Amino acid sequence: MIDSKKEFVEKFKERTKQYSLQAIRIFKRLPKSEESAIIGKQFLRSALSVGANYRAVCRARSKAEFFSKLSITVEEADEVVFWVEILRDSGIMDDEHIRAFEKEAREILAVLTTARKNT
Questions:
Q1: What is the residue range of 110's domain?
Q2: pLDDT digits (tens, 9 = 90+) for 45-90
Q3: pTM beyond cutoff 0.85
Q4: CB atoms within 10 A of CB 9
Q5: What is the pLDDT of residues 12-50, one digit of tens each?
Q6: What is the H or E stretch that residue 8 is in?
Q7: What one-character-per-residue DSSP string does 41-65 give?
Q8: pLDDT value of residue 93
Q9: Would you say 43 and 80 are in contact if contact means Cβ atoms under 8 Å apart?
Q10: 46: exposed, middle or buried (Cβ count in 10 Å: 0-12, 13-18, 19+)
Q11: SS3 of residue 118 by DSSP
């Protein structure tokens, strides 16, 4: 059980890193407009924060710190979903270019939310 938990943690670290890299690629494809710049920066900040904060969760020194850092990560992951919806629904980015990332964002949010509920 311990090895499978450790393996899951390492795979999820890598998954959130790939998620961050995909967010960077999406950010680079945004149109060059003022609203894209503002929304894009918010999107990118929250997306990169998910992976960084998950790593902090893995280094928590107590259950209270673990729960606190995990809660921050859940909030950031939820914010990413919001910004993706804004990018799509505003027409800044078409559905075709963001669909797979949105699916991954929702899956990562679900995993983190479940982890927090089980803590």
A1: 2-117
A2: 999 999 999 999 999 999 999 999 999 999 999 999 999 999 999 9
A3: yes
A4: 14
A5: 999 999 999 999 999 999 999 999 999 999 999 999 999
A6: helix 2-29
A7: HHHHHHHHHHHHHHHHHHT-SSHHH
A8: 94
A9: yes
A10: buried
A11: coil
CA dihedral 104→45→37→19, nearest 10 degrees, is -30
C-alpha torsion sign, points 66, 68, 71, 77: negative
The enclosing domain of 37 has a CATH number of 1.20.1440.60
Number of domains forming the structure of the chain: 1
| Distance (Å, whole) CA 67 – CA 65 | 5
Q: With 70 as the cut, is the pLDDT of residue 2 above it?
A: no
Closest alpha carbon to 22 in 99, 91, 92: 99
Alpha-carbon distances of 79 from 3, 50, 100, 103, rounded to whole Å: 32, 10, 17, 14
Which residue type sits at 40?
A: G
Q: Is 84 exposed, middle or buried (0-12, 13-18, 19+ CB in 10 A)?
A: buried
